[in-house]
Amino acid sequence: MAYLMCERGRITATNSKDAVIKAHSLGSSLAVCLMDKKNSVCAIGIAILPGATTDDEINSNFPMLHASNGIGLLYKKWSELGGERSNLEVYLVGSAQFIKEPAELANGTLVYKGVRKMLNKNKISLAGEHVGGPINRTLIADNKDGQIKVLWGLERETIL
Where are the domains of the chain? Predict the structure, then answer.
């Protein structure tokens, strides 16, 4: 079994049936997971900031740094590996809010709202999510069985 790590601001994708992608310690960042269980294609990108940038150096080194730039790149990578829109399942994990601040100023909330707006605009529904609240999460996407697992809190586990 191949274990792949997805880092903040980056995209990790695979079409290996024996691969597992992990995204650790998400905090206020948001992991966007695209899954095609039929074709064993999985791609995860971790968005850190809402909005977009025109800085090509940032976009090439950290394609998911800004959610608005990254979602299209994530989808492109996923489809290049054989993901098909008819089989698309989208999962969102993260966007924690650790301090008391208005939701309109909370980075995790802003990233989440931006990603949801883009998904809705493209008529893409969610298969599952585990977002918000003051908790840190780890996302584990298992391409072999198509299972999406979230580890959170004190050894808690949720299957999406």
Answer: 2-159
CA distance 68 to 41: 22
Each residue's pLDDT expressed in tens, for the chain with a length of 160 residues? 789 999 999 999 999 999 999 999 898 899 999 999 999 999 999 999 887 666 665 567 788 888 888 899 999 999 999 999 999 999 999 998 877 666 666 778 889 998 999 899 999 999 999 998 888 999 999 998 999 999 987 778 778 8
Angle of the 67-80 helix axis to the 107-121 helix axis, nearest 10: 50
Element at 74 (helix H, strand E): helix 67-80
Strands 41-47, 19-23: pairing kind: unpaired
Half-sphere exposure of 102 (CA within 13 A, CB side): 2
Q: Classify domain 2-159 by CATH number.
A: 3.30.1330.200
Reduce the secondary structure of 81-116 to three states and give it as a string.
Answer: CCCCHHHCEEEEEECCCCCCCCHHHCHHHHHHHHHH
